[in-house]
Structure formats: C-alpha cells, structure tokens
Amino acid sequence: MRFRAKISDAGCLAHFSRAVATVAKLAKACALRLTAERLVFVAGARGAAGGARLWCEVRQGNVFDEFQMEGAAAEKNEIYLEVTPENLSRALKTAQNAKAVKIKLTNKHCPCLTVAVELPSLSSTSRVVTHDIPVGIIPRKLWNDFSEPSVPDFDVSIYLPALKTMKSVVERMKNLSNSIVIEANLNGEMNLKIETDLVCVTTHFKDLGNPPWGSQKSSQERDLETMAEARIDIKRLLQLLAGQQVNPTKALCNIASKRIVHFILLHEDVSLQYFIPALV
C-alpha cells in the first residue's frame, strides 16, 4: 500500500488547502478515500456528525504535479484512511509560500500522512518543514460504509443566492430558533423561515433559477409555484455557510420535502456535497 503526491503550483496548493480547510470546519474526523483519479473526504457515513453527511471530492489531475498510489487490494486499487482534517489543514497552512509540497503515506511508529513543505531559502539549500499526521487504516471489510451517498428523489432543485448574503441572514436567525425551514419552488423562489410561538420571520429570494437537470421531471408533476420544504438544524446550515472556503462557481440545493436538504458546491476540480436531514 503506497501513496505519494506533489503540488508545485501555488494556485493549485491554495485551492487544495481551501478544500481541506472547509472539510475541517464541517467534520472533526473523516475518512480519506484515495483512488487513482481523486481524493474524497467522507464524514458522517456511519451516523456521526449529528446525522449530517459530507462528501468532498478533489479530482487530482489538474491539482497535483505527481500522484502515485497503490492500493491494498489488487481487485480494487483504493486506500481508505481515518484522518483528522484539522491536522492536515494546519500542515497546509504552513505552505502558503512553499516552492512545493509533498504528501506521502509513511509508517513512523504508526501510519502517518507525512506532509513535507519545501520553503524558499536565501541559500542554495532548501528548507523543508515536515509534518507527520497520524492516520488509521480502514480495513477492506468496512469500505462499503464510505461509498458515495445516494441522492434521494427530490422535489425541487434550486440555485442558492450569494452564500455571503445567505450566511448573514442565517446568522441573524440563529438567535431566534434552533431550527430553520428552507422552502423553494420550480419558479426560482426560495424562502428561509423561522417559526416559533413568539415570532415568524421569513426572508424571500427570487429569480434564483432552477437547474434544468433537477426540474425536468418534477416540473411535469408539480405546479411551478408549489413550495417544497424541510426544517433542519440551523447550526448545521450555518456551519456549512461559515466554513466553506472553496468559493464555488455554482451552489445549489435539492429539497426532498420533510426528508433532507442536499447542498452541492462546485468549483473547478473540487465538488462538495452536504446532506442535512430534516427534523421531525
């Protein structure tokens, strides 16, 4: 079982660091799934994280200059590791001005992801800062626990408003309630609602647009004005909005009424999916 990768481009390094930092904000522990084409951070696969699930995928082709891996099982060339994403994020933060960063699976008293940061130097000799991050090896019999979550049949798919705006709204609302209702329709309208015995507050967003792949089937079965809604934990939503650093070029959510809200953030070679189950 071997893994070795290298990033030399400053932009790619910053992009990867932001993706890891986002994962670290959303999960204290996760699985890191390594394949020949991608790295995937998986959290909440076995009911952790308060029911929320995370799937963050980094396609390695345009990010890493070198990427070599050899899995433990010949029939399935993959490696599954238990990692603390905050430790990896901290190591990458020391690499902001690095000439190159190498990441390698090593065994130093225990399995580790060794991050070697090559820093610029005034002399001809490079300075290298090394971080050894302990990891756990996930056995083959548990790999199915970390497969990609299936997306439920949703009632509405809608593009999100500017995430900074949405974050600002939710931050104000969290002082009023522990839960928030997200509702949207196939006419590009979305509402964020707080409903308590004392107060009802609603923020309306219009003309957001609906992804065509999400609305083709549903639009034939549903009235465009009909709202799909789900009540979710407001802290989970704010955790996503406050923690994301990938600066997505596309952000959308799928709502399965009274069941789940599925968020998707896309930016170049990184995609992040976050599933928040509806509260009863």
UniProtKB/TrEMBL annotation:
Could you list the residue ranges that cross the membrane? none
One cellular component (GO) term of this entry: cytosol
Gene3D superfamilies per UniProt? 3.70.10.10
User: What start-end ranges are recorded for coiled-coil regions in this protein?
Assistant: none
GO BP: double-strand break repair via homologous recombination; meiotic DNA integrity checkpoint signaling; mitotic DNA replication checkpoint signaling; mitotic intra-S DNA damage checkpoint signaling; nucleotide-excision repair; response to radiation; telomere maintenance
Q: Which UniProt keywords apply?
A: Cytoplasm, DNA damage, Nucleus
The UniProt entry, under InterPro entries, shows: HUS1, HUS1/Mec3
- Main subcellular localization, coarse class? cytoplasm
The record's annotation in Pfam families points to: Hus1
Compartments (UniProt record) = Cytoplasm, Cytosol; Nucleus
Matching PANTHER family: CHECKPOINT PROTEIN (PTHR12900:SF0), MITOTIC AND DNA DAMAGE CHECKPOINT PROTEIN HUS1 (PTHR12900)
Q: Report the protein's function.
A: Component of the 9-1-1 cell-cycle checkpoint response complex that plays a major role in DNA repair. The 9-1-1 complex is recruited to DNA lesion upon damage by the RAD17-replication factor C (RFC) clamp loader complex. Acts then as a sliding clamp platform on DNA for several proteins involved in long-patch base excision repair (LP-BER).
Q: How does it assemble?
A: Component of the toroidal 9-1-1 (RAD9-RAD1-HUS1) complex, composed of RAD9A, RAD1 and HUS1. The 9-1-1 complex associates with LIG1, POLB, FEN1, RAD17, HDAC1, RPA1 and RPA2. The 9-1-1 complex associates with the RAD17-RFC complex. HUS1 interacts with POLB, HDAC1, FEN1, PCNA and RAD9B. HUS1 does not interact with RAD17. Interacts with DNAJC7.
The UniProt entry's sequence similarity note says: Belongs to the HUS1 family.
This chain's protein is named Checkpoint protein
Q: Identify the species of origin.
A: Podarcis lilfordi
